[in-house]
Design goal:
This protein is an alpha/beta fold. The protein has eight helices and twelve strands. It has two domains: 118 residues, Response regulator (Rossmann fold), CATH 3.40.50.2300; 96 residues, Winged helix-like DNA-binding domain superfamily/Winged helix DNA-binding domain (Arc Repressor Mutant, subunit A, Orthogonal Bundle), CATH 1.10.10. α2 runs parallel beside α3.
């Protein structure tokens, strides 16, 4: 049985009941909220291992809830649910700090797989897994990364990264100079055992470049290896 405390923020009663029952059957401890205000208040307690957050909510939409949680320093993994299929909506959610997204309608098995992957990768916050070899402090250009403290500083100024952005950056740093395929990154950073068709990696790389590169449009740290994946050369 899986374990973990999940906050489900979903305003559709039927879907809320169906999902909460399914999650409980899988061994999760589930709390629910039917609007953005209540969901935000509960998520701010930091008492959950993962938040499943619908985008279209009364009182506060999911984007606003996600943004506020990250601004308040809550790093709990967030899986956003959206009925919209447009790329722009998915990008907005990821930009605001969400770790993954799922477009409605979806199969329960896919939701469970995404949740398991996020929880598996999250571990205890964003600290490196037990037994991870190598250094915990990295420096490149004017950036310093401390993986033990989960801190990134650029030019003396702290850089705010989502939990998933930090995991991705750490994986790049631990594999400097290696060409990493999207499939490998999805498996090792997101925990997907069966690689889905998604642009999640590309979106997260784009946001890392925005936050770390001197010129994101002409990256010098995270390079695209056309037809293969990405390479960190910082």
């Amino acid at each position: 049985m899986a374990e973990g405390r999940v906050l489900l923020v979903e305003d559709e009663p039927g879907l809320q009941l169906t999902l909460s029952d399914r999650l409980a059957a899988e061994g999760y401890e589930v709390e629910t909220a039917g609007d953005g205000e209540l969901g935000l208040a509960r998520a701010l307690t930091g008492a959950f291992d993962l938040v499943v957050l619908d985008v279209m909510l009364p009182k506060r939409d999911g984007f606003d809830v996600c943004r506020t949680l990250r601004q308040r320093g809550i790093s709990t993994p967030i899986l956003m649910l959206t009925a919209r299929g447009q790329v722009v909506d998915r990008v907005v959610g990821l930009k605001l700090g969400a770790d993954d997204y799922l477009v409605k309608p979806f199969e329960a098995m896919e939701l469970l797989a995404r949740i398991e992957a996020l929880l598996r990768r999250a571990g205890h916050g964003v600290a490196p897994p037990a037994g991870t070899p190598g250094a915990t402090r990295f420096e490149f250009d004017d950036v310093t990364v401390d993986t033990r403290k989960a801190e990134v500083v650029k030019g003396g100024v702290p850089v705010e990264l989502s939990a998933k952005e930090f995991h991705l950056l750490r994986y790049f740093l631990e594999h400097r100079g290696a060409t990493l395929s999207r499939d490998e990154l999805l498996q090792e950073v997101w925990g997907y055992e069966h690689t889905p068709s998604t642009r999640t990696v590309d979106v997260h790389v784009a946001w890392l470049r925005q936050k770390l590169e001197a010129s994101p449009k002409t990256p010098q740290l995270i390079l695209t290896v056309h037809g293969l994946g990405y390479k960190f050369v910082g």
